[in-house]
Amino acid sequence: MAETAPAPPAADEGLALHGIAVRFGGLVALDDVSLRVPPGQVVGVIGPNGAGKTTLFNVICGFVRPAAGSLTLHGRPLHPRPDRLTRLGIARTLQGVGLFAGLTVAENVMAGATGSARAGFLSALLGLRRSDRDERRLRAEALELLDELGIADHADAPPATLPYGVRKRVALARALAARPRLLLLDEPAGGLGVEEIAELGELVAGLPRRANRQPGTGADDPCSVLLVEHHMDLVMSVCDQIVVLDFGRVVATGTPDQIRDDPAVTEAYLGVDDPSASAEVPPSDEDNRPSDQRSGAAA
Questions:
Q1: Phi-psi region at 38: left, alpha or beta (left = phi > 0; alpha = psi -120 to 50)
Q2: 260 near 44, Cβ under 8 Å?
Q3: Where is this region: Disordered (predicted)?
Q4: Residues with Cβ < 8 Å from 15, sequence gap 6 or more?
Q5: Eight-class DSSP state of 294
Q6: pLDDT tens for residues 91-128?
Q7: Which secondary-structure segment (H or E) carries 273?
Q8: Residue 94 burial (10 A CB sphere; 0-12, 13-18, 19+)
Q9: Do the Cβ atoms of 41 and 224 come closer than 8 Å?
Q10: Which domains are seen in the chain, by residue range?
Q11: With bands split at pLDDT 50, 70 and 90, how would you rate the model's confidence at 19?
């Protein structure tokens, strides 16, 4: 008997934005934006600078309240607050690394899992036994994550002593320590070299398939990923779906192949309606270098 293909996610599963609008005075940052991030998928958001990508993330995290529209998470209304994201199963990385300089690498990762700590603040303050057990458990889980990301050797090092690419992995480990069902990655490839970006791509592509055991239930829920990124090679290689923003509006949605061939994407990046031009037009690594390091630059 032929194997039955797994059923697609229900329409109300995962994160959904419905007609989101954001205005800052007379500036329209987002205009009627709708998108879905189904469970177990990687969805990318791309667009030129100023297209509204960061504002979109800030709406999902509760830093910005939309003027119109609504959000749902697994079919229920979502009213996000930055201090309650972990309880909702949402974690986010920043464009930088945002690590705590006074903590070791392992302690930074442990900080991401404090929402699952069984002992409360008073227990920790009084040094009670259950607080010690909690700390040992959190450290063991942090070391397991660091090993999974290939940086366990740096567990006891201060973040400031590590290369930027390693610090980026520490930030990712801290986000994963919260066992999110939805992970928001804000330009994770920024500042990385070509080889580091390729390694990052393998990590991101594997996130929906990794074990993500939820505290209390023991269930392994898939981790969805919403990715904002300028490196098109990375986006095209890891995303199941891509949403293109331009001037705060969704101008295209589809698979990487569909987006690559969409004239609206070319127009958004180039400012011209030329279907024959390539849609993969963000600046090259050469263009991203400081001017005094580019080939042929004046001394």
A1: beta
A2: no
A3: 271-299
A4: 36, 37, 60, 71, 72, 73, 78, 182, 224, 226
A5: S
A6: 998 877 788 888 999 999 998 886 554 544 344 444 54
A7: none
A8: middle
A9: yes
A10: 9-89+179-299 (3.40.50.300), 95-174 (no CATH)
A11: very high
Q: How far is CA 244 from CA 36, 40, 230, in A?
A: 13, 20, 11
By three-state DSSP, how is residue 47 classified? coil
pTM confidence score: 0.78
Taking each helix axis from N to C end, the angle separating 129-148 and 164-176, rounded to the nearest 10 degrees, works out to: 130
Residues counted in the chain: 299
β-sheet with 27-37: strand ranges across? 27-37, 15-24, 68-73, 76-77
Predicted confidence (pLDDT) per residue in 240-267, tens digit: 999 999 999 999 999 999 998 888 888 8
Residue 50: exposure state from Cβ atoms within 10 A (0-12, 13-18, ≥19): middle
